[in-house]
Design brief:
The protein has three helices and eleven strands, in the order E-H-E-E-E-E-H-E-H-E-E-E-E-E. The chain has about 170 residues and is an alpha+beta fold. The protein starts with a strand and ends with a strand.
């Protein structure tokens, strides 16, 4: 089987989530789970000031674009290209070009697998970053983003925080 790569798909602006939902529905209907692995609309947290109050909202990093991790073949190309709201793949002519490692890193997409010595339910200590010297229990692990979500006590209540695997060690 061919190797899966990340591709960028151009969509009508404002249709990113609809395109993602349509592709995921098509994957399910046509049983393409082995060929189209993930569809992602990259988001970033942005702090906005409204009426003097700071509010964190999620905004699209690249309006008009959707990222797809897929094995490129005629069938998958056809499915994605003919999804309502998709205008085409990013690349010269009709030839899609996969993202390189360097292009994927700032998006939080990592391809190399990291083995960690902790699992959900383990107590870990944060050894770097903003939450350095914090201790928490792992609630969830995301190997795609290589992050662990831990609960930390903040202002007297438990708050989930996402930490990179590189910033933690097992207690």
């Amino acid at each position: 089987m061919a190797e899966a790569n990340w591709y960028v798909v151009h969509t009508y602006s404002g249709y990113e989530n609809k395109v993602k939902a349509n592709i995921e529905k098509t994957i399910e209907n046509r049983h393409l789970e082995e060929e189209i692995l993930e569809v992602r609309v990259p988001l970033q947290d942005v702090v906005e000031m409204k009426n003097g109050a700071r509010k964190t909202v999620q905004k699209k990093m690249f309006p008009g674009y959707v990222l797809i991790n897929m094995v490129m073949n005629d069938d998958t190309w056809y499915v994605v290209r003919n999804t309502r709201g998709v205008t085409g793949f990013v690349g010269p002519g009709s030839k899609p070009v996969p993202l390189t490692e360097a292009e994927m890193k700032p998006l939080g997409i990592k391809t190399e697998n990291v083995s960690v010595d902790f699992a959900e339910g383990d107590t870990i200590a944060v050894v770097a970053g903003v939450w350095k010297d914090t201790i928490g229990v792992v609630q969830r692990m995301d190997f795609g983003k290589q992050t662990a979500t831990i609960n930390v006590e903040l202002f007297g209540r438990e708050t989930p925080v996402e930490i990179s695997f590189a910033e933690v060690r097992r207690m």
